[in-house]
Amino acid sequence: LPGGVRETFTSWEKIQSKLDGVALLVEGLHKSKATGKVVHQTLAVISYDEQAKNFRFKTNLANGRAGDYTGKVLADNVFEWGMDVPRGRIRYTIKLTEKSEWSEVGEYSADGTTWRKIFEMTLRKVKQG
């Protein structure tokens, strides 16, 4: 975070199973709680690449940026994906909690050993109807 200032957001993410469970479609919208302005909007696909024997996390952002990352299952209901950045690495760990919440923590490391939390999100399932 620039200057180490914590920011709070109102977020929703719609997660849908696609292709008989082969892929997850994730659509997210995140707004500043202070201003109501959209700060992050994304559409992503998580799928298993049988040939490469790993998970792929493809993202498309509203600002035109896109990415193709690898991911891995760390344990039951725990998935991690990440990216190299100019001065280190960022990783995101997603956990499905016992309360069926999507808990996601983002961390940054300059050396790959010491990690600092830069992002935290907890999403609660809302039934559509």
Give a verbal description of the structure.
With 129 residues, this protein is mainly beta. It has strands at residues 9-18, 23-32, 38-49, 54-61, 66-75, 78-85, 88-96, 102-109, 116-123. It has a 9-stranded antiparallel β-sheet with strand order 1-2-3-4-5-6-7-8-9, with no helix packed on it. The radius of gyration is 15 Å and the shape is globular.
Secondary-structure blueprint:
Layout: E1 9-18, E2 23-32, E3 38-49, E4 54-61, E5 66-75, E6 78-85, E7 88-96, E8 102-109, E9 116-123
Radius of gyration in whole Å, from Cα? 15 Å
Rough outline = globular
Structural class per helix/strand content?
mainly beta
Number of helices: 0
What is the mean pLDDT?
A: 91
Share of residues in strands: over 45%
Distance between the termini: 37 Å
Order of strands, widest sheet? 1-2-3-4-5-6-7-8-9
SSE string, helix = H, strand = E? EEEEEEEEE
Fraction of residues in H or I helices? under 10%
Which oligomeric state applies?
Answer: single chain
- Major beta sheet, specifics? 9 strands, antiparallel
Strand count: 9
Instruction: Please mark out the parts with pLDDT under 50 across 5 or more consecutive residues, or reply none.
Output: none
Name some characteristics of this structure:
single chain; 129 residues; mainly beta; 9-stranded antiparallel sheet; 9 strands; globular
